[in-house]
Structure formats: C-alpha cells, structure tokens
Amino acid sequence: RKVGFTDVKSVAEYLMKSVGVNVKVERSKRAFFIRGRSAVLLGRAGEPLCEIGELHPEVLERYEITYPATALRIDIDNLVEALSSGG
I need a surface site. Which of 48, 53, 67, 81 has the fewest CB within 10 A? Predict the structure, then answer.
C-alpha cells in the first residue's frame, strides 16, 4: 500500500496528541503543495507547529522525482514552546 497525504497527516496529528499538544487543522497555502492535499497544524496560540502536503507535480518534475511525494515539516521551536506552555 502506498502512503500519502492522509496517512502522513494522521501520523502528525497523532504525534501532537501523544505529546499533549492540541492542534487546529487548516489548509496550507504553500504553492509547492497540491491544493486540497495540504494542511498546517496550529497550536493554541495559532502558531504553526507542523505542515504537511503532497508536492505539486511541477515541484516533482523540477527535482526529477518520478513518484508522488508528501512532505512533513515540524517547527521544533514552536513545538517546544507549545509543550512548555501546556499544549
């Protein structure tokens, strides 16, 4: 089975929940992600903790990636701050 955006988003949400951080999910506006196949997980104060997205075909082509790819970025500084302020 292939792993895609939905799988990676679920893992990111589980990770945040398992460390006690409540998140709000919003759509990412990054142009390098496919519209509707991306998300940003926001902390209680609205700070971005994690961003997930399926890479746009133009990005894949530019880097000669021949298969669908999903990216995950965690902002460690914001996550540590969220953890120290109680999630």
Answer: 67
Cβ neighbours of residue 47 closer than 8 Å, sequence gap 6 or more: 75, 78, 81, 82
User: Taking a C-beta distance cutoff of 8 angstroms, is the pair 38, 15 a contact?
Assistant: no
Q: What is the pTM of this model?
A: 0.90
pLDDT, average across residues 9-33? 96
Helix locations, the chain, DSSP H: 5-18, 57-62, 76-84
Tokens 């500084």 correspond to: 77
Cα dist. 25→1, 17, 66, 70 in Å? 25, 13, 29, 17
